[in-house]
Amino acid sequence: MTYVATAFGVPFPPQEALAEETVDVEISAAGVWYSVNDGFRYRATPETLKSSDVSLNRITASSPFYDGEYVVHSTKGNVTETVEVRVYGADNIEVGDNVETLVKWFSQPSFKLRRTLGADQVTWDCYAAEYAIDRSHIYLHNRMALVRFSIPRLPFETRTVLT
Questions:
Q1: Cβ atoms within 10 Å of 13's Cβ, excluding its own
Q2: Can you give the pTM of this predicted structure?
Q3: Backbone Cα Rg of the chain
């Protein structure tokens, strides 16, 4: 692989090498991993796992003698991940069945979510997700639906490098 450009002294691989990276998003249900980016029934959109919303739980103290508030203790709160999945089927009945299955997976009280990008694999402990289903006429005529999940997860992750 030939590196062509640099930013801050770090070489970037050429665009063709970036396109070769495979992305998969999987969810655990009943001890089995299911892909939500299998390219057949489900396809994760580019918006999937694009950003994480991290919040801090802070305990502050103030004083009548000093300006402002001071942070006494701080911990990370749960992180919210966004997963957006296009759902396909041979007909609208199959699309509905596939949407129902996907919603059941993400509605579990707790589950694991795993993202694999090339050789980098990250696993999170997640809780039941909020979701929105888009079955507008454009999707309906193309035998598909768009499901957007907001998934609360614990603030730590397990990272594995695949070989």
A1: 14
A2: 0.78
A3: 20
Q: Which of 73, 89, 71, 81 is nearest to 124 (CA)?
A: 81
Q: What is the DSSP letter of 40?
A: S
The answer to whether 87 and 145 have CB atoms below 8 angstroms apart is yes
- Tokens representing residue 162 in the block: 């695949």
Q: Give me the pLDDT at residue 9, please.
A: 57
**For 63, left (φ over 0), alpha (ψ -120 to 50), or beta?**
beta
**CA–CA separation, 108 vs 118, rounded Å?**
28
Give me the count of residues in the chain.
Answer: 163
Residue with tokens 């809780």: 127
The encoded tokens of residue 37 equal: 């980016």
If you classify domain 22-161 with CATH, what class do you get? mainly beta
The domain limits of the chain are: 22-161
The answer to whether residue 19 scores a pLDDT higher than 50 is: no
Question: What does the alpha-carbon distance between residue 34 and residue 107 come to, in Å, rounded to a whole number?
Answer: 14
